[in-house]
User: Fold this.
Amino acid sequence: MGLSRAAYYYAPIVPSKQYSDFEIRDWIEKIHQEFPAYGYRRVYHYLMRQEIRVNSKRIKRIMREYELFTCLKKWMRPRGTHSGLKIRYPNLIVGKKLTGPNQVWATDFTYIKLRSEFAYLSAVIDIYTRKIVGWALSRELTHDFCLEAIKGAVKRENPPEGLIHHSDRGVQYVCEPYIHYLLENKMQVSMSRPGTPEENAFIESFFKTLKKEEVYLKKYQTVGDVIKSIPKFIDEVYNKKRLHSSLGYMSPEEYECKVLELKINDRPVQKIWGRSV
Assistant:
């Protein structure tokens, strides 16, 4: 037929669909309605999951040109809590290699400033999946609501014996009722050093996300606002929908389901970095 070998094997390249800047801008604005703190990387992966292929650098340019970056308050470095008691437990999670959920939980609490008072949130996070497995709200800073959070996590997840429970050395976590509950449920107690919130970085990261993407934007005024909105954000947005870069841009529950389908030897291994003492 008079064709060269190269022409015979030539496969024409099908051009990808081209989108205008206005289309991409509208998509970004729609994404920001539900996830107002998404940067260009998460927007890129969100669109990819919708089978919309747009270069990440182009997304970044459009967000800059149309001023689509969110205005978020600067996160202040949290202060660690210290009980002043002589109870000491070592940090067991530094260098730990995780192969699945319910191996290491971390917990802490944070405050939510309201119009005339404070509300407090205690949360328990599974370090492997970044899923919030337990939480509790309170008007008072006592050990009771922290105990309520861990009890809710145990009831929800039914973890195996030997799970590592990591916290700081705040009085809420070293008091007798709390420690007794952990030991009664066959958990290993792990604690970070006083004044070192970076040693409990996973739960601190969640609180940062919560405040930037929920609390600061909605400007809660009353405890009723907190009770109405926080549970919905945790269960419906953070656990089920929010994409995590550390999880390959999947949500915690999506990542958990994917991992549990794999054999233990085939699961991704996560190593917890930090300074051992």
